[in-house]
Amino acid sequence: MTDEQIVDRVRNGETRLFDQLVRRYQDPVYGMAARFTGGGADAEDVAQEVFLKVFRSLAGFKGEAKFSTWLYRVTFNLCADWLRRNRKPGRKAVAIEEAGEVRDGRVDLERSLLESEERERVNRALASLDERYRSVIVLLYYQKLPYEEIAAILGVPVKTVETRLYRARKMLREALGQEEGRGER
Amino acid sequence: MRCAKVGLLIDRYVDGQLPPDLAEAVGAHERGCVRCARRIAAARRLAGFLGAEQPLRAPAGFHDRVMDAVYREALKGSPVERQPSAERATTAGSPSSRLRTYRRLGLSFMLSAVVLTVSLVLPQGLYPSLFRPESVEAGLSRGAPSAVKNALDGAGRAVQGTLYKGGISR
């Protein structure tokens, strides 16, 4: 059954079918929330709020975009709200929490990889980015979405996505001390 | 190709998004420029780190907690508000919607009774002298506006007429 078919049936009163949408999208929604909030209870709260908001708003879903695009847009908006509420003066970054907590106990190999110094630096650098730039990186590299869908989620032209990606990578490289200078040859 | 232009194309080059001729030109520059080769290597490393990241997974029990919240929402909330108008008609006569209607009606009656009581009793309690019959009569004879007098006379005649029509005489 497609997402849109499930949405139709949920709107017609079959609430239990919403369960299938949650199962389908819980990982990407939680993953996106974790990238913005730093993981843990905050990520879970935001992800749960995403599904509740989507459930409450199903009547307003007109099917003009794919359900997943709409869902990611809701996720991004709630993550951005969370960032605005929780960004304190002088606090630029929200670091991704320990891999063991975020990854539901899958600690062994993945944890050891995440604990490598350079990966932690990448996470810190990512967390220090403004939400406009962090969003394109998260959607491209972590959610593996094409430019066109990222543009639809963020409500901007594809060209803007490309520009933000360029700047985001540049800022990441600078944050990681990888910028080699701009000397002309 | 100059370093500045290569700098603008590095990400698309690393992602394999450049047209072949442009990719070839950047590759040639990379082989001849140590500084740009370092920048390209750094871009590859960054893309490698970001792209190699495994997707995060929701914690155990997350799905159940979400569905609990969804069911609570469905029960406590007003599913009618969430449904399209066509579906509202089908649920309008359901027991829960009737119960809500009765509750609203009851609440409206109670509020009306409270407002009526307050508006009748409170002024008499605050200004009892104004509501004595002799005060009203004295006020009218002392020169209350004629419009008020006329209105009161008219009301009296109307009441009398109604009583006579109904076969009741004084």
Name the structural class of chain B.
mainly alpha
- What is the distance, rounded to the nearest whole angstrom, between the alpha carbons of the first and last residues of chain A? 58 Å
Q: Looking at this structure, what is the CATH superfamily of chain A?
A: RNA polymerase sigma factor, region 2, helix turn helix motif
Shape of chain A: globular
Q: What structural category characterises the helix and strand content of chain A?
A: mainly alpha
Structure write-up:
The complex is a heterodimer of chains A (185) and B (170). The longest helix of chain A is centred in the first third of the chain and has 20 residues, at 18-37. Chain A has helices spanning 3-11, 18-37, 40-56, 67-86, 99-102, 108-114, 117-127, 131-142, 147-154, 158-175. Helices cover 68% and strands 0% of the residues of chain A. Chain A has 185 residues and is mostly helical. Chain A has one domain (3-98, 106-175): Rna Polymerase Sigma Factor, Chain: A. Chain A is built from 10 helices and no strands. Chain A starts with a helix and ends in a 10-residue tail after the last helix. Chain B has 170 residues and is mainly alpha-helical. Chain B has 3 domains: 3-52, no CATH class; 94-127; 132-170, no CATH class. Chain B contains 9 helices and no strands. Chain B has helices at 3-14, 20-32, 34-52, 62-76, 79-82, 85-91, 95-126, 133-141, 146-165. In chain B, helix 1 runs parallel beside helix 3 and helix 2 (20-32) packs across helix 3 (34-52). The radius of gyration of chain B is 42 Å and the shape is elongated. The model of chain B is unreliable at 78-95 (pLDDT under 50). Chains A and B meet through helix 2, helix 3, helix 7, helix 8 and helix 10 of A and helix 1, helix 3 and helix 4 of B.
